[in-house]
Amino acid sequence: MKKIKLLLENFYLKDDSIYKNDKLFYSYKLKFDYPKFSIIVLAAKKFNKEGILNIIKIYNQKEIYEYIFVVGKDDNKNWILENLNIINGKVVLNPNPNDVLYTTIKIGLKVLSENIDYIILQFSTLSNIKKETVDLIIERVKKSKKEIFIPLYENKKGHPIIFKKTMKKILCNLRKEKGLPYLLKKYKDKIEYIEVFDPGVVKWK
User: Fold this and answer.
1) Domain range spanning residue 57?
2) Which of 46, 54, 57, 158 is most exposed by smallest CB count within 10 Å?
């Protein structure tokens, strides 16, 4: 497969093709025999360079199909574009970074590729998670029939929170004043809690 640096403005992936400024740039075929995960890195309100670099390391799995970085400043956007070389990466700006968290999530959801199966919400300031923990969570998600996944450490709910793509429409239509707590309460029957032995899922930088 031809390698192309996709972490550039105006590049995006759709239907096995790469587009630039809405014009076909490169077409190829990929065959996936496993679920595809899109990771939305929430870094609009608090941008953590070290955390972002660590996230790329701990999510180094074949199932990670794309990275979406949502930042709050042009300087942060430029840093990602200049320093990260990720195939199928996207970086978008939240013009109101101090708004509620849901605003940042919704901006990330708008640029999701259509052919992914799961959505990972990952804070850039919550990057102390061990790679083996991420591996365990992804394997559990792949085998489950639930639609929302939350790690538990010593009975404490942690992150990342993972949603099946079937929840995308609900996430996009959520009123921002209600936010994720409302959604998780309303759809608690769709949640699977995954017990882990890693304090990193609840430890913020």
Assistant:
1) 33-201
2) 57
Chain segment 32-55, per-residue pLDDT in tens: 578 999 999 999 999 999 999 999
Give the sign of the dihedral formed by CA 167, CA 42, CA 117, CA 190: negative
Q: How many CB atoms lie within 10 A of CB 121?
A: 20
**Nearest CA to 93 among 109, 104, 81?**
104
**Any domain includes 24:** no
> pLDDT tens, 6-30?
455 566 555 556 665 555 444 444 5
The answer on pLDDT for 90 being more than 50 is yes
CB 149 within 8 A of CB 140: yes
Please check the confidence at residue 181 and state whether its pLDDT lies above 80.
Answer: yes
Instruction: Give the chain's domain count.
Output: 1
